[in-house]
Amino acid sequence: MKHHLYIEMDNCIGCRSCLAACTQCGGHEERNRNYVYDVDPLVSRQTIPLMCLHCVNPACARSCPAQAIQITDEGVVLSALVEKCIGCQNCTLACPYGIPKFDQEQNLMYKCDLCYDRTKEGIPPMCASVCPTNTLQWLTDEQLAAKQSRHALGQWTASEPYNPLEGMTNVKISLPGILQGKQKLF
User: Fold this and answer.
1) Phi, psi at 25, each rounded to 5°
2) What is the 3-state secondary structure (H, E, C) of 4-60?
3) pTM of the full structure
4) In this structure, are residues 56 and 170 in contact, taking their beta carbons and an 8 Å threshold?
5) CB 3: neighbour CB atoms within 10 A?
6) Quick one: the chain helix, strand, coil %, rounded to 5?
7) How far is CA 127 from CA 108, 115, 118, 133, in A?
8) What are the tens digits of pLDDT across the range 18-46?
């Protein structure tokens, strides 16, 4: 059964539990691979989580001359392989979402790999497993379809082929409250 990371941006309360959990995921060397941004810190308390969207045809992988960025059969776009990465940073420049980061000391790109050691076994990624407001959810195809039909988002769904920035993504995003000016309490 296929699962997707689903992000309901307007649920985020800025607790940053997802960031703490990310550092505890195996293989992350206690390095954070997700981000929480303040939308407009002088006006509101609205925050949004941001992590790799695991594009179906990722610009980071397309731009890598060493083919260091691998894509799993499940659609997870992994961080650069240590033995292949040449440190050119093309991936960090190519990503339209600004997700991959470059570690100068290790001469290596790193980013969210959707806790692949967990998700390949059907276990939710660390960020989704600790989110207290269900901003980050690990959903089956059926659960995702039900959620999307309930929101009836149409053009507001950033992950569908309605002229998005980088084509289809494996992480799905919902922005109904933020974009439609609605207040939502979880």
Assistant:
1) -70, 140
2) EEEEEHHHCCCCCHHHHHHHCCCCCCCCCCCEEEECCCCCCCCEEEECCCCECCCHH
3) 0.80
4) yes
5) 21
6) 25, 15, 60
7) 23, 9, 11, 12
8) 999 998 887 777 788 888 988 888 888 88
CATH architecture of 3-180: 2-Layer Sandwich (3.30)
**Amino acid letter at 43?**
V
| Residue 82 tokens, joined | 């240590």
The DSSP secondary-structure symbol of 138 reads E
Q: 24-38, 86-100, 155-169 — which one is most confidently predicted on average?
A: 86-100
Domain parsing of the chain, residue ranges: 3-180
| Helix spans in 51-94 (H) | 59-62, 90-94
What pairs with residue 174 in β-bridges?
A: 8
Q: Where is average pLDDT lowest: 5-9, 156-160, 167-171?
A: 156-160
Beta pairing, strands 35-38 & 47-50: antiparallel
